From TrEMBL, chains A, B:
SUPFAM superfamilies: Homeodomain-like, Tetracyclin repressor-like, C-terminal domain. Residues 15-75 form the HTH tetR-type domain. It holds the Pfam family TetR_C_24. This is TetR family transcriptional regulator. It comes from Streptomyces spirodelae. Residues 38-57 bind DNA. It comes from the Bacteria. The keyword Cytoplasm does not apply. Keywords: DNA-binding. The keyword Transport does not apply. Transmembrane segments: none annotated.
Length: 211, 211
DNA sequence: CAGGGGGCTAAGCGATCGCTCAGTTCCCGG
DNA sequence: CCGGGAACTGAGCGATCGCTTAGCCCCCTG
């Protein structure tokens, strides 16, 4: 079932028809983009007539907003859960990157809509989404700042590095394919290591500085 | 002039009307996406009637292909020129990332079309673009491989790291804004440093291994 | 069994899409 | 001064768009 990866995020949506429309819209938006997707296509994937869409959602854009909001909330929650209860900053960063990357790979269909269809949102809807996006940036930047304070990390440009790590994770949604040679777990592991390198992580016990 | 950043890539296109259409299409595709852009909009930006578009290009998709082809050729050329004549692998990697990032920032309008509208290309056109994309991947992977051979780099997963560095550079096109707090040069400098860290670069003279 | 409201469909509205075509303008060789 | 072709426009074609409306079905309540 190709929708397996999406069920997790939208499983709680009711009624059933509204959820089926959401799932159809996610796949359609991810494949063709918001503007190229017709309401007839979405309704067809949900096994309904085009008119049925407007019983559950006011407009096509509202459907996009629902997807974007739930998707952003999930990805922020994933980040928040990941950084909880870690022993040190290095573990916190590794966990955060692992989880964030895994989410973008496993839910790449949803993630593509979340990350690349922002411009199709209406003005007020966009403003509400931006708040959620800022939240995830702050979480990651906080991890880097704390690591620098504790001496675990060596980062000349914290803000820039935080943005780069975020960017690296997000771009996974663009190129990831289930048919590719790597699983989401493997990519998460690799990227966690790369993020630690970007943060200038010094393994415990080795605190001598060069130069 | 907002088209200043685009002129460089498409300055050689003749006749004048064909170039103006290209410039209009680049901006329109970047702002709204290929499918959401109307031929009337493109022609309007070029100061012509909608029908004039079809004198210079067979279809709207052919316009996209021209933009994508020229854009990919430029970005590959930028990479190739960057890696020439560098003293060692570290300098080669730093130059490559600096140049590639700068191109994606300075030409972010073109780069967005190049990187995010691939799916709108026709089948044969897409196949021709993929060849160009593979080329830039190979260039970067070659730099990393050589650095590992020479002992300058420490990279457990060369293929994955090459993909990650590429991904990091490409994603600049998504978030870069001229109104942002960083110039393309500054981002290039930061990212070159981050790429060296990702490659496990050991500064010359320090060849001792840990463990 | 009657009454009514939510979920759904068939049909279609006005608008707009990519693209075509007949016709006008203008430049350029002879 | 003339003939012809390239560049371009106004008008419009058939198709399709997001969305609406009128009405049907079916289940719930009493």
């Amino acid at each position: 079932m190709t929708t397996g990866e999406i069920d997790e995020s939208f499983g709680g949506v009711t009624p059933d028809a509204a959820r089926r429309l959401l799932l159809g819209a996610v796949r359609a938006f991810a494949e063709r983009g918001f503007h190229a997707t017709t309401t007839r296509d979405i309704a067809g994937r949900a096994g309904m007539s085009p008119a049925a869409l407007y019983i559950h959602y006011k407009t096509k854009e509202e459907l996009l907003f629902h997807i974007s909001r739930v998707g952003h909330e999930r990805s922020v929650a994933v980040l928040e859960e990941a950084v909880e209860g870690a022993a040190d900053s290095a573990e916190r960063l590794a966990r955060a990157v692992r989880a964030f990357v895994r989410w973008h790979a496993e839910h790449h269909t949803t993630a593509r809509v979340v990350q690349y269809e922002l411009a199709a949102l209406g003005e007020e809807h966009y403003a509400r989404i931006v708040v959620l996006r800022r939240r995830s940036e702050e979480i990651l930047r906080g991890v880097l700042e704390e690591g620098v304070r504790s001496g675990e990390f060596d980062i000349p440009d914290i803000r820039g590095t935080a943005l780069a790590v975020m960017s690296l994770c997000i771009d996974v949604a663009r190129w990831f394919s289930p048919e590719g040679r790597r699983t989401p777990d493997e990519i998460g592991e690799l990227y966690a290591d790369l993020a630690l390198r970007m943060a200038g992580h010094r393994p415990a016990g080795l605190t001598s500085s060069s130069g």
